[in-house]
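Q: A reviewer asked whether we had any structural model of the full assembly, not just the individual parts. We don't, so I'm hoping you can provide one. Inputs are below.
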Amino acid sequence: MANDTQFRTCPDTGLKIHLPAEKLIKTNAVVAVVFLLVGGLFGLSVALTRWPAVHFLPADWFYLALTAHGLDVLLVWIIFFEMAILYFASAILLGCRLAAPKLAWVGFWLMLVGAVMTNVVVLMGESSVMFTSYVPMQADPLFYLGIILFAVGALLCCCCFFGTLVIAKNEKTYEGSVPLVTFGAITAAIIAVFTIASGAIILIPTLMWSVGLVSYIDPLMYKVVWWAMGHSSQQINVSAHVAVWYLIAAVIFGAKPLSEKVSRTAFLLYILFLQLGSVHHLLVEPGLSSEYKIFNTSYAMYLAVLASMIHGLTVPGSIEAAQREKGFNKGLFEWLRKAPWGNPAFSGMFLSLVMFGFLGGITGVILGTEQINLIMHNTLYVPGHFHGTVVAGTTLAFMAVTYLLVPLIFRKEILFPKMAQWQPYVFAIGVTGLSVFMMGAGTLGVPRRHWDITFTDAAMSFDFPGAAYLMLGLNGVSAVVASLGGAMFIIVVVGSLLFGKTKGEAAPAPAAEAPPTTAAAQYGSAAHLEVPGTFALAMVFLVSFVLYYFVNWKYLAETWGLS
Amino acid sequence: MVDDQGGKGDKIPFMQQLLDNPFLLLCIGIVMPTVFYLIWGIMEVISIPLAN
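A: Here is a predicted structure for the entire assembly that you could use as a starting point for your response.
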């Protein structure tokens, strides 16, 4: 059992903070931001190459940069940050000691060594196999070994998270059920365990194939098992960023979920069905049956989509309920107009929520429908979709929560508060452009992962409409804006950590009411359940969803005319 | 706060017990995708006839 010298009480939130857990949160978050910077620079170079007027990189460097970009932002930045969230949602929110901090450090170092190893090997130029590394393309053995080490490290960190849950229960640091934010983190950790196990199942034989110990890996078998890791790793993000939405709503507004039971059931739907959506990457594989494809995407995945729509309703609903309790009751939207739009934690979180729903969510359903998937499979529409989920949804949510972590965990005041205020908006505008214009180009048939869409050296030429080139140009401009938003985030965060004024540790004067953070650390639903503004917003979303869904069926109908 | 966990001494509903047990959830969260995604998918690939 930890002694009291290993804890401090946060003067702002009243949370009991285990110092070894705090150190791990800081380290994982800092390393995550470093990889966001590296991966973001690679991403900018990719977008500038897709911009026809710039065409920045030569072909070999384009595929190298695309490989490094995918690894660094889809896997490394996100999972390092998620480990910080797991430690926060367990040891800090439950007010207990972290299980086996030494094991957590072993996990951290394995992740770091693996991530650096994979980056170095990719930069050496012999492993430009992209994030998916489909066989029979072969990378350097250290490429696979690096990812395996990273995955093993992440698994050890997940073990520490589950161990911490046991400690908290045994030491009775909470009563009844864990807080909803912790439950969201449990969902993320469960999906992480399946993801990592699937990665081991496919990457260990692939490593052996790369060193000559295994003679052959079936490409379709590889794709099936690899996507259990590749897509599920992005489902960890979804669960984690939804937990972050609830956390930010609780910390800023003292918001409690409209219904704990409904929100937890939605997370349960994630646990049951979210990973099955991985099949949408396999929808054009002729070797797999329609039963397999349709059950997993058009039945199971819709239940996970339902869960996302529930969260999309209950998170703003909980904010509306909290705001109306404070007296913001005029009309449908006073609660939203009077929200703290100048607080980057709130604006980042709310933009993340809206963009995840409109850009990433709706388009995910389009890609998950077998018939309409055919018109954009393997086009630039796919990266357009996942920039809507992973960048607009997850990355923006993680940036937003960082504005809370810097003062609460790092005990530093935010440097350049004006820049911090603008940062989520600049990043969101850039990412919206990235996502929309890539999807626009993809709808016109522009392929993904292609250095030269003009097919200069191809035996058979093909001309895309001029609009496709316009979309790619606008995509490049958007990438520059998004990079500016990313740079602003890094300047504010790194500047605050290095040069920010240290916040005092003096205990606050006793307040009449519990600090709002208490809502994040307790079980309980909101008392005020009338949220008409949120339901109006939800109807706008549903109408957009239905219209866009049928527009895509119209596109499909035009592909094969019947008369 | 609306307490929907029931008072002391009340029988805890099955769903509540399920949601409060992270290790049971972990089992379910691994079994579901393993059966419906991985095993089913692998069986589909294995059952593709070999070319003669």
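A: Points you may want to mention in the reply: Helices of chain B lie at 14-19, 22-46. The mean pLDDT of chain B is 86.
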